[in-house]
Amino acid sequence: MSAPTTTHVKPGMGAPGTVREHHEHHELSFLRKYIFSTDHKVIGIQFLFTGLTFFVVGGLMAMAIRWQLAWPWTKMPVIGGILFPNTGEAITPEFYTMLFTMHGTLMIFFVIIPLLTGAFGNFLIPLMIGAPDMAFPRLNMFGYWAMIPAIACIVMSFMNPGGGPAAGWTAYPPLSTIETAAPGSLSAQTYWLLALTWIGVSSMMGAINYVTTIVKMRAPGMTMMRMPLVIWALFIAALLQLFALPVLTAASIMQILDRTLHTGFFTPTNLVVNQMNPEMVGAAAGGQPLLWQHLFWFYSHPAVYVMVVPAMGMASDILATHARKPLFGYKPMVYSLASIAGLGFIVWGHHMFTSGMNPALGMTFMVSTIIIALPSAIKVFNWLGTLWGARIRLTTPMLNALGFVAMFIVGGLSGIWMAATPVDIYIHDTYIIVAHFHYIVFGGSVFAIFASIYHWFPKMFGRMMNETLGKIHFVGSFIFTNCVFYMMHQLGMAGLMRRTAMPYDYETYAHLQPLNQFISISAFCLFAWQIIFVFNFFHSLWWGKRVGRNPWQGCSLEWEAPSPPGHGNFDHQIEVYRGPYEYASPEVEEDYLPQAKKLS
Amino acid sequence: MTDAIATYDSAVDAPRDHHPVYDYDSGPPVDRGKFAIWLFLATEIMFFTGLIGTYLVIRTGAPSWPNPEHRLAIGVTALNTFVLIVSSWTVVRGLQAIEKDDKGGLVKWLGLSILLGSTFVGIQAYEYLELIHAGALPNQDLFWTTFYTMTGFHGLHVIVGVIWLFCIWVGAVRGTYSAHNYLRVELAGLYWHFVDLVWVLLFTLVYLM
């Protein structure tokens, strides 16, 4: 791209690899540099763009769902004519079922997990531990490229004639395994399962790489207990994926076999669906539908923590940096992350209280789930302790991190309460559940992702995002998020069931339509408000203010590298002398003491 | 996937950096390739745990379960198990040879392992063909459902292992490995032993129990 003999640091000079002294060195072709790259920063940015693209798609699906719930069976503006020419431009029940299935699938497997572990895991880990790249750069590249078959499969399932997958993102059999059970579950569900398997392969390669890199490639002096919390969080999330994901892969494969070879893992005896008995067409039977739920949640509950643990780590880092105070209680923060993850393996049954599982087993799952409140509370109080008496800089990343903490508290508290079996039996599958997990995943993870994009954008691209636009974006998003999801608690308490296309046919729910209309209007505003973010992102990419190495005056190692860092990250040997949160240190004049600064 | 882990080559994979070589804090005294292989094997253990756990849940929950003796040729498979165990031993002999810089020994023992591994796959394929010929298909009942899934996925792992060992063998024939450079032999060996160990478990659970 630019001249290969730049002899001084020029932050923001376009492509990675041109910012440092670069004598007669390989200039990679565009394809090698940006498409088939083994550079962890480029791969991270590839994940970032992929994730954000699917965020828009998944968001549009949510808007269609909200349209139906507010004004059921009415003409859908703009796209109704294209999608539903035969039903008077209104949504169909089958399409609604597919919408919430795909909304959940995309948001979890193609947005939150790739953004947190794929984008930020890749970008931050080597930079923040002082390594030039991942332990296995080529494996890292394959990790991103395994996303491509996954995307192909999910598009195939979406475009499948006869409709997309309609069994919910949890794919409970026999609904998901019997072809006549749901409309459009012919081959769409099989493609859906293949997509999940490929995503699993991608995450697996990433996780092996992250753990190896963190264990083996820390800069001298960077002990485990000097690592920034976001690195701890990504480390723990990678371990969660390593041990939980293969079980989902095994379960998906068994469901694929049930669907294609008519094996009988999840098909019970004498099952009749739509006048059809699977045994009549040669399928094996005698299997256990409940087994799928156990296998699925054995992965998917830890996956919930894969979606929130990195967000906790990011929030910890961003809070400390912008509060200009050391993080309150570093070690308890590490141990509480680890115990949340550890407990995450033994709580999956709380998704199954009403499944007919043994009530005694339900009791143990209830207790283990409620125990998670303890490490979570440690985290929340330590975040508050970090803010206590701090000289807070209310920057955009800080605002978003504060938003994360606030909404994590709401979602976390409702989580404890609904973990109690008697409560759950009443509210199971109502909008309370929808409200709860959106507070964690949207209010929590997405706000942490926004905070991280604002915080690390200068390091990624060498330019600042616009602060004013960022603040406007935050305030609107925060208000509308609460308008949307807080009100869902009210719907849930009124007993409104989730996954229902037309709840108002039931007299008990008819009075909830105005509330649903309020939620939908708020949701449309929330969606539209993100245009500010998109504009800010792309505008700043080209015309943002250029920054030096350390725009936020942070202590951790990524700020030692140029912005954006070149190939190989650092232009000098990094040595670490202290922990990552030495803000307001009395030993130096400035209010921060970087990890790599040697005091004489 | 497995290949990428095994064939990490610092000359190719390390970022070609023109700065002084980076130092690292001393992690555990194990090569990063070996560390990653152990992590990978942990994921494999969880994968087979999913399959075997399913088998046990379905089998213990079934009202009746056929006696494997009446359905499977246990004698032949016992022989096949022996073949696989011997192949693990030959891989160890190959590793011992290259540790002493005996390049010919490595070629010999690895070649023997590949032969034994292929024999295992061949006998399993023969077993499958016979069974399918007799009408035992995975959709017959839960016995065949679980049998084909578990042994099938194990068979795929053996095939991957044979291909992996073959790649190492080609390197050995070319003289790539020496007493100072045999990590890749060791990594392929680790995977091979894992596949072997899983088979011992599967043979016990599916054929003998």
Entry summary:
The complex is a heterodimer of chains A (600) and B (209). Chain A has helices at residues 30-35, 40-70, 80-83, 93-129, 137-145, 147-158, 188-216, 229-260, 289-323, 330-343, 359-371, 373-387, 396-418, 421-427, 431-461, 467-493, 507-510, 513-543.
Please tell me about this protein's structure.
The complex is a heterodimer of chains A (600) and B (209). By secondary structure, chain A is an all-alpha fold. Chain A has a single domain, classed as Cytochrome c oxidase-like, subunit I domain (Cytochrome C Oxidase, Chain A, Up-down Bundle), CATH 1.20.210. Helix content of chain A is 60%, strand content 0%. Chain A is built from 18 helices and no strands. In chain A, helix 2 (40-70) runs parallel beside helix 5 (137-145), helix 5 runs antiparallel to helix 7 (188-216) and helix 13 packs parallel to helix 16 (467-493). The radius of gyration of chain A is 24 Å and the shape is globular. The relative contact order of chain A is 0.11. Chain B has 8 helices and no strands. Mean pLDDT of chain B is 88; it is low at 1-20. Helix content of chain B is 76%, strand content 0%. Chain B has 209 residues and is an all-alpha fold. In chain B, helix 6 (103-133) runs antiparallel to helix 7 and helix 7 packs antiparallel against helix 8 (183-208). Chain B is globular, with a radius of gyration of 20 Å. Chain B has a single domain (2-208), classed as Four Helix Bundle (Hemerythrin (Met), subunit A) (Up-down Bundle), CATH 1.20.120. Classes of the chains: A mainly alpha (600), B mainly alpha (209). The interface between A and B is large, with 67 and 50 residues.
